[in-house]
Amino acid sequence: MINKCILCGKKVKNYKPEYCCNGKECGCMGLPIEPPLCNDKKCQEKVYGKQKLKQEASDGIRRYI
Ligand SMILES: [Zn+2]
Ligand SMILES: [Zn+2]
Fold first, then answer.
1. Gap between the Cα atoms of 47 and 38, Å rounded
2. How many angstroms separate the alpha carbon of residue 17 from the centre of ligand 1?
């Protein structure tokens, strides 16, 4: 079972992975929707900060096209 922080490798307590499906014929590859992440601010900012940047970038491309 995956219960280690994807960034620092620290064990994450009470991590309950939610899966989209078993990964067959799906882009999720059977990976949990939300990756295991510890409560460390540095780790949280890295993960959620990246997601925000991705969203902003895709929005910007649509506008410019
Ligand atoms: Zn961490
Ligand atoms: Zn899936």
1. 11
2. 16
CA–CA distance from 30 to each of 5, 18, 48, 49, 54 (Å)? 18, 10, 21, 24, 22
Q: Indicate the pTM of the whole model.
A: 0.55
Tell how far CA 60 is from the center of its chain. 22
The answer on pLDDT for 62 being more than 60 is no
For residues 46 and 60, give the distance between their C-alpha atoms in angstroms, rounded to a whole number.
21
Tens-place pLDDT, residues 13-52: 888 888 999 999 999 999 888 889 998 989 988 887 766 6
* Closest listed ligand to the CA of 35: 1
Outline where the chain has alpha helix (H).
Answer: 41-64
